From TrEMBL:
<dbReference type="GO" id="GO:0016747">
    <property type="term" value="F:acyltransferase activity, transferring groups other than amino-acyl groups"/>
</dbReference>
<feature type="domain" description="N-acetyltransferase">
    <location>
        <begin position="2"/>
        <end position="158"/>
    </location>
</feature>
<dbReference type="InterPro" id="IPR000182">
    <property type="entry name" value="GNAT_dom"/>
</dbReference>
<keyword id="KW-0808">Transferase</keyword>
<dbReference type="InterPro" id="IPR016181">
    <property type="entry name" value="Acyl_CoA_acyltransferase"/>
</dbReference>
<protein>
    <submittedName>
        <fullName>GNAT family acetyltransferase</fullName>
    </submittedName>
</protein>
<dbReference type="Pfam" id="PF00583">
    <property type="entry name" value="Acetyltransf_1"/>
</dbReference>
Amino acid sequence: MIKIRKGNIDNIPQIKKCLIVSWVDHAKNVSELLDEERMRKSDIEGYYKKAFDNVKEAFILIVEVDGKFAGFLRADIQKIPDFFKFNNILYLDDCYVLPEFRRMGIATFLIKEAEKIARKNKIKRLQGRVYSYNKSIQKLLVKLGYTSPHSTWDKVLI
Ligand SMILES: CC(C)(COP(=O)(O)OP(=O)(O)OC[C@H]1O[C@@H](n2cnc3c(N)ncnc32)[C@H](O)[C@@H]1OP(=O)(O)O)[C@@H](O)C(=O)NCCC(=O)NCCS
């Protein structure tokens, strides 16, 4: 059975393991910008403790399959400039599903649940940052109706 629940600080070690795998993958794919060693040493505990301490501004959803941790999603409520039509947004920060539970609709389930929470909080816009190489999440987001109206462009001076 697939179940979603709100996370708590006891989930930080599992979340950390997933994030390191995910961030190292980012670093390998975007090696011109990201430092793998520094990503491994990031203060994930601190970053997540802050979210668990600020329940009005952030939430973490955990998915369990038959009682086993299968993945998570972190979302932050953010204010963006007034010239946007909807300037209170839900920022989808981290989303990770353990490899053995992928392609079962779990990330879809997590994002839809985050959308429900956004609606309850009268938030009309969701946003996330996705690396160009990460086609899996892009396909998923397109299926859920997300678009990419802008992108970040980088150049490293040598
Ligand atoms: C990206 C990720 C979250 C997807 O989780 P998931 O639970 O497997 O996703 P879903 O089962 O909900 O997939 C829904 C749809 O997205 C697309 N999709 C998901 N993974 C895909 C993949 N590896 N290749 C191609 N399409 C993919 C498909 O269209 C899929 O529908 P289908 O299975 O009917 O074809 C998961 O692969 C993951 O944790 N990856 C590592 C972390 C990461 O990249 N996170 C996102 C950015 S922070």
